[in-house]
UniProtKB/TrEMBL annotation:
The chain crosses the membrane at residues 21-40, 60-82, 89-109, 115-136. Coiled coil: none annotated. The lineage of its organism: Bacteria, Bacillati, Actinomycetota, Actinomycetes, Mycobacteriales. Keywords: Membrane, Transmembrane, Transmembrane helix. This is DUF6069 family protein.
């Protein structure tokens, strides 16, 4: 006869985050992670340049920083401010923000970037999803803990 021993495994919980920490932390994390992805894309031979109406534009690293920080900063700030009145906005914001981030990959793919740049820039959109979800969930946990 064989007996199985039950093992318990604890899953680390997300920390409760104050609203300012969540917003600033998410923006900093997104910028740092996306700069790492940009660096890998550069090493893979990506030029991060595109042509629009005959004008060549370089989108990195300044564009990476700007497009990582500004939309996330605006969206998260709105969500955490509304959460003072309605905490449900945090989950709605996580879903809507994630869908917007993933949906805008289409604009990157349709631009005339080289393959390495397209892959890296698309991955940067994906990187925003867990950053956004973890930060907003951290705020929700902070509110629930009160």
């Amino acid at each position: 006869m064989t007996t199985a021993t039950a093992t318990t495994r604890t899953v680390p919980a997300l920390p409760a985050l104050t609203r300012p920490v969540a917003v600033i932390g998410a923006v900093v994390a997104a910028v740092v992670l996306n700069l790492i992805v940009w660096g890998i894309g550069e090493l893979a031979g990506g030029s991060f340049t595109m042509t629009n109406a005959g004008v060549v534009s370089d989108v990195a690293p300044g564009g990476v920083i700007l497009m990582s920080a500004v939309p996330l900063l605006v969206g998260m700030t709105v969500a955490v401010l509304v959460s003072y009145l309605w905490t449900g906005v945090l989950r709605v914001g996580a879903v809507v923000g994630s869908l917007l981030s993933l949906g805008t990959i289409a604009m990157t793919v349709s631009a005339d970037f080289d393959t390495a740049s397209t892959v890296a820039l698309s991955l940067m959109h994906v990187v925003l999803v867990p950053v956004l979800v973890i930060a907003l969930e951290g705020v929700r946990r902070s509110i629930s803990a009160r």
